[in-house]
Write a structure and sequence with these properties.
- The structure holds two protein chains of two kinds.
- In chain A, helix 2 runs antiparallel to helix 6 and helix 4 crosses helix 7.
- The longest helix of chain A is centred in the N-terminal third of the chain and has 19 residues.
- Chain A contains 14 helices and two strands; from the N terminus they run ααααααααααβαβααα.
- By secondary structure, chain A is mostly helical.
- Chain A has a two-stranded antiparallel sheet with strand order 1-2.
- Chain B has two domains: about 30 residues; about 230 residues, no CATH class.
- Chain B is globular, with a radius of gyration of 27 Å.
- The N and C termini of chain B lie far apart (about 80 Å).
- Classes of the chains: A mainly alpha, B alpha+beta.
- At the A-B interface, loops of A face strand 11 and strand 12 of B.
């Protein structure tokens, strides 16, 4: 009887102790929720999602936090904060915007105050880009260098570049490891609370792959939901005819709704080429001297300044260039078949119509989509 | 208890009957005879004046005397058909449009997924471009095929071919040419489109008899003789036709008429 009197309280005590022991907490299994990209009608079905970074709801959520969190610089002083969103502004279609108060003229500078070598590229529909990232495509899926293949590597490049975020990856991962809430988010996204820079890259890349624009006026026109006016329709004819402006061979159209081929062209801007970071720097082929990526024209009205060096400030300047400002050279792409005439020679009305069509590619829902915007607060309630 | 024992025996009997019946079905019926068959493996090469093409170098001269270079060739071939005693065998009936791109090495090979019955075949034909029945807009959503779309108001569907390069004109100016073929248009005096012209054509390959052997792959090389596009029966002069012809049916017609001599085949 005495034995029972001893055993029962001891048993109860042990039970309580073990109940409260953190190690006894059942471990939540790593079960991320697959994130499905709804492919808009007419868009490519082949997606550039690396096998080692499948899209998950948790990964995208974490990526969105990191994309917007200025502590991605690895620093906490107010004047040293910088994240992707410092330059990639949603309301400017994830470019800086030519009226950005921090980056006058849309020329972005890193934390060290030095401008990037080229101006920004649109961050739209990149999940369909297989042809390389950057103006010269130096990051591409088949790159023999496994560290220069995809958006994940672009994140690393931007975070560590001296004239961008200028971050130290060890310092960055240690900082996020210490911020309340983040380790749990990493755990849910990648199965481990331990913050690694690889997982930071992966999460941001997942978020970037969700940035899809497919709801412009032109998209609605193709879906039969909206009509284009006469000027816009005429502009589209000019856009897609060789005797018009012939934009479509490089910039797509109804049959290529990405509005880019993601390929690289010397479009006749110059006759002398000295940029050490053109496409030639990647391929070593003469035909790529002075060649750069054809950008998507979706939301292009928000993406000034234009061309790799930002030489044009307005769409009107760009159209004037293609109309009468082309320069012939041995390296100009054959698709610039009007180059010997200096351009396609549009009338003022035709220029207006062409621009009116191009503006039908504006997608306001992309610019305001809450899923793409800055979170109200970060996991530690930091704002 | 007796009832359950009875039920068990009944179930056993039924189960045994089913098993015996099923196995009888499978083993009793003789298997379908599989006709002996082999495979076809086609590769595409591109030559100028009989030699493998050298891109981006102004070393060629066409029949009209235009010095020219070629930068890239992208085109569709479709409806590969084998002929035997006047009977046609269409290969890969449901997926028979193949894209060739001189910048994409893997596009330079095409192996029809159909097995081909053993035997001697008289010839092989294919369509250059895509037939009217199949050339539907938006059927290719993925690059690079989608980059070949042909604008709706010019007839829709896809380019049959983009052959891009440059020529030196009579003023010694080097100009780009886009030798693009697809659906042509007819225009009225005001320049309005009044109709469309299908420019695809069937390529009949001379000396294309071959043999398919059971279990083996027959290989053949299809060669595009690029210079032939500018030669026979029409002398294609870039100085006359200019550097872009998508909206010029006369120029496309001249090119298409030359197309019949453009391809040859050699079995290995």
């Amino acid at each position: 009887m005495l034995r029972l009197k001893v055993i029962v309280p001891v048993f109860l005590l042990l039970s309580v102790l073990f109940w409260g022991c953190p190690n006894s907490k059942p471990v939540e299994p790593y079960q991320p929720t697959p994130y499905t990209i709804d492919i808009p009608k007419g868009f490519p079905t082949r997606l550039n999602i690396p096998k080692d970074n499948p899209m998950t709801v948790e990964g995208v959520e974490l990526g969105r936090y990191l994309f917007y969190d200025g502590r991605l610089s690895g620093r906490t002083q107010p004047d040293s904060l910088m994240s992707c969103s410092t330059c990639h502004v949603q309301s400017s279609s994830f470019e800086a915007g030519i009226n950005n108060p921090r980056f006058p003229g849309g020329i972005v500078k890193g934390l060290n105050g030095v401008a990037t070598h080229h101006v920004m590229l649109p961050m739209i529909n990149l999940v369909w880009n297989f042809s390389g990232y950057g103006w010269n495509g130096y990051i591409w899926p088949e790159n023999p260098n496994p560290n220069l293949r995809n958006i994940e590597d672009m994140v690393y490049a931007a975070v560590t570049a001296k004239n961008e975020i200028d971050g130290d990856t060890t310092r960055i991962k240690n900082l996020f490891q210490s911020i309340k809430g983040y380790p749990e988010l990493f755990g849910r996204a990648f199965g481990s609370d331990k913050v690694t820079f690889k997982n930071i890259e992966k999460a941001i890349a997942q978020f970037v792959r969700t940035l899809i624009s497919a709801n412009s006026k032109f998209d609605k026109y193709l879906r039969g939901e909206e009509q284009l006016n006469q000027s816009e329709l005429h502009g589209y004819v000019l856009f897609t005819t060789e005797q018009g402006a012939d934009c479509f061979h490089c910039h797509g159209g109804a049959g290529n709704p990405l509005f880019t081929t993601h390929l690289f062209y010397n479009n006749g801007k110059d006759t002398v080429f000295t940029d050490p970071m053109d496409r030639y720097a990647i391929t070593g082929k003469e035909r790529d001297i002075g060649a750069y990526k054809a950008t998507t024209l979706r939301n292009i009205e928000f993406q000034a300044p234009y061309m790799h060096d930002g030489r044009f400030k307005t769409l009107e300047e760009v159209i004037d260039f293609y109309s009468e400002g082309l320069h012939n050279s041995p390296y100009v792409n054959p698709l610039m078949h009007h180059v010997a005439d200096g351009g396609v020679h549009l009338t003022p009305t035709e220029k207006t119509d062409l621009i009116n069509f191009i503006k039908t590619l504006r997608d306001d829902s992309f610019l305001t989509n809450p899923a793409f915007s800055k979170p109200d607060k970060f996991p530690d309630d930091y704002k | 208890m007796k009832f359950y024992k009875y039920l068990s025996i009944q179930l056993l009997v039924i189960l045994t009957a089913v098993v015996v019946f099923q196995s009888g079905c499978c083993t009793g019926k003789p298997p379908e005879p599989v006709p002996p068959a082999g495979y076809l493996y086609l590769s595409f090469q591109h030559v100028v004046d009989g030699n493998p093409i050298v891109f981006d170098t102004m070393i060629y001269q066409n029949e009209a005397g235009n010095p020219y270079l070629v930068s890239e060739i992208q085109y569709f071939v479709s409806d590969f058909t084998l002929w035997k005693n006047g009977q046609a065998l269409l290969l890969d009936k449901d997926e028979d449009i193949h894209y060739v791109d001189t910048d994409i090495p893997k596009s330079l090979y095409y192996s029809p997924s159909d097995n081909i019955y053993e035997g001697d075949y008289d010839s092989l034909t294919f369509v250059f471009g895509i037939t009217e029945e199949k050339n539907r807009s938006f059927m290719f959503v993925n690059p690079p095929e989608s980059y070949m779309f042909w604008p709706e108001h010019l007839g829709g569907g896809y380019h049959y071919m983009k052959l891009n390069g440059k020529w030196r004109d009579t003023n010694e100016v080097v100009q780009p040419f886009n030798f693009h073929l697809g659906i042509g248009q007819t225009y009225d005096a005001q320049g309005n489109i009044t109709g469309f012209v299908q420019n695809y054509f069937t390529v009949h390959l001379p000396a294309s008899s071959f043999k398919i052997v059971n279990g083996l792959t027959t290989k053949a090389v299809i060669t595009m003789h690029v210079d032939e596009w500018f030669k026979d029966p029409n002398t294609f002069d870039f100085n006359y036709w200019g550097g872009h012809i998508m909206e010029n049916q006369q120029a496309m017609r001249a090119a298409i008429e030359n197309g019949h001599n453009v391809f040859s085949i050699k079995f290995e």
